[in-house]
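Methods — Computational structure assignment.
A single polypeptide chain was analysed. Its primary sequence is given first, followed by the predicted tertiary structure written as structure tokens.
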Amino acid sequence: MPVHRSGSGTTRRSHLAAAGTLLAALTLLLALPGAATAADIPQRGTARMGQGVIAHDGQRGGSPTGTEAVQTEGVDVSGHQGDVAWQTLWNSGVKWAYVKATEGTYYKNTSFTQQYNGSYNVGMIRGTYHFATPDTTSGAAQANYFVDNGGGWSRDGRTLPGVLDIEWNPYGAQCYGKTQAAMVSWIRDFANTYKARTGRDPVIYTATSWWKDCTGNNASFGATNPLWVARYNTTVGELPAGWGYYTIWQYTSSGPTVGDHNHFNGALDRVQALANG
């Protein structure tokens, strides 16, 4: 007598239909604006100062207004710019520069020599920055790697203290998988180690919105660490807790010659004063 399997066939077809529906839903999700895919994640080492500002805070354009003091123009550069036209920048009024030296404990800027020496040779006061990756190694390990690979300081009047670039994670979760308390501890570990190695408190580069999200708007660094704040708008806006003023303001990523342009909050002699410590 023939055996009827219509029920099992229906079940099999139902499972296939469900799988098809799930696949279609996943495809649609990945196609949505802002959905992360493997192709969206940049290669380790390619992060640069301000990389996440437009995506998270936007860019409202226009020239900065309402500054109460003289502002001295500067730029920040990294390996993605390659050789930089330093003489052109100097002629345009740029008087200082920060150069990316390191990232994590795994990357050194391949254009460092041309950028660091080139800015110095045209007359600029220059310094270096470290792109932090708190999910890879400790703050102390990264501070030591930074100092050992271009992040040192000397009282020659032309060398600015090193910068800790702490901002959105381009490789994953924006706070690097850390709680707010753990992030504050990581930053303090870096800052304390850098000062022990160089005698200087590092400048902290960040954006107010990231600082609020990832440190709980911690106010404990304002008394010791100069602030470099990122905000691409006509005014600097709200500062992170603990800082009553900014030392540097990164106000655009689309400036002439080099995209990232900044105001130092003061005349050139104040830039020299920061260099001298």
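Note: Strands lie at 71-77, 96-103, 107-108, 125-131, 163-165, 203-206, 227-230, 248-252, 261-265.
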